Amino acid sequence: MFLIPGFPKDEFDSECNSAIQEFVLELKNRPEVTITFIAFQYPYDSKTYVWNGITVHAIGGRIKKGFSRLLIWRKVYQKAKLIHRSQPIDQVHSFWLTECALVGNYLAKKFKVKHSCTLMGQDARKSNKYIQLFRKFPTLITLSRFHTSQLKQNFSIDAEHQIPWGVKSTNLTPPIKNDARDIDVLGVGNLVELKAFNKFIETIKQVKTSRPDIKAKIIGRGVEENNLRNFITENGLKDNIELFGSIPRDAVFEEMKQSKVLLHFSEYESFGMVLLEAQSFGVTVVSTPVGIAKELPAITIENPEDAAKRILEILQSEPSDAELLVKPEFQIANVADQYLNLVFM
Fold first, then answer.
1. Which of 54, 187, 205, 246, CA to CA, is 20 to 30 A from 74?
2. Helical axes 273-280 vs 249-257, angle rounded to 10°
3. Are 270 and 147 in contact (CB under 8 A)?
């Protein structure tokens, strides 16, 4: 049984925890695995439904706080107890080392089964207030060397396993040559301060001095959207940078196929699925050294000056096929194997 804050409301909800979606769809194909999800907060309606053949029990918590959060946890326990009566649970797995893991510990003790937890993002940062509530931690899984080091540095906690996310083998198509791609630089992510898209814009401004026709696109929405739009206008980049808004995941992939460089200035990533997805479509990845950036054949940068220099070099050359290969450990079938052999055994 999986515990998760939010799960796709239907099979068209491609943006909700997309990395987990890929993982679960691969796991579902394994005959030895039966999957049930309890979603704490999202979807916002309390209901039981089927997603790609998987039963999902949505509690409908709607991200409420205070005493309401305790009532959500109680509803999760009651739902899990009913599930256990009809089909005994043999293992609990939670996503994020926060409320799901805390409740998961309780359920595992009640049902006398194992409990494991995949940390997913900022739950490895000092801001995670749930850490102090754990008397005992479940088996912990991190997503990258960077993620593992953050957990150790911030809480002196060692993860038992480090298992990345992965892409489907069907994504690994022969890359389109750069001269057939019409987007020079692509940015993808939530438009929030953490993602540092102001540095993306500053980089394009510097590249423009040598490449006046530089074409860049940013896909995403967020609270920084108006600030970024104003920053683009103030720097005379309206003809160079397009704010594209939020689009379905498959449409993002189509944009990646037409892009030469993915520029990622995020200040923190536990994994950075967008880096792996871009690489699988033959895009050269230029990123700050967060998440899996150092584990990919990616170019790591620290500031816009460095990024502009490297992007100009890339635009003048063609990346080799060797640089674009996705390592086996980042393919979703191998990820599922690791969970089955190391975590769910």
1. 54
2. 50
3. yes
Residue in the block written with tokens 């500053």: 202
106, 129 Cβ separation under 8 angstroms: no
Helix (H, G, I), strand (E, B) or coil at 3: strand
CB 105 within 8 A of CB 130: no
| Phi, psi at 160, each rounded to 5° | -70, -35
User: In whole angstroms, what is the distance from residue 265 CA to residue 130 CA?
Assistant: 28
3-state helix vs strand vs coil in the chain, percent to 5: 40, 20, 40
Is the CA virtual torsion 39, 126, 272, 162 positive or negative?
A: negative
Which homologous superfamily does the CATH classification assign to the domain defined by 2-168+331-343?
A: Glycogen Phosphorylase B; (3.40.50.2000)
Instruction: Report the distance separating Cα 310 and Cα 345, nearest Å.
Output: 45
Q: Are strands 47-51 and 54-58 parallel, antiparallel or unpaired?
A: antiparallel
The CATH architecture one would assign to domain 173-324 is 3-Layer(aba) Sandwich (3.40)
Domains of the chain, residue spans: 2-168+331-343, 173-324
According to DSSP, the residues that pair with 57 across neighbouring strands are 38, 48
Helical axes 304-315 vs 197-208, angle rounded to 10°:
50
| Euclidean distance between CA atoms 228 and 264, whole angstroms | 15
Beta bridge partner(s), residue 142: 162
Q: At 212, is the secondary structure helix, strand, or coil?
A: coil
User: What pLDDT, in 10s, does the model give residues 189-243?
Assistant: 999 999 999 999 999 999 999 999 999 999 999 999 999 999 999 999 999 999 9
- In tens, the pLDDT along 17-51 reads 999 999 999 999 998 899 999 999 999 999 999 99
**Strands 284-287 and 36-42, how do they pair?**
unpaired
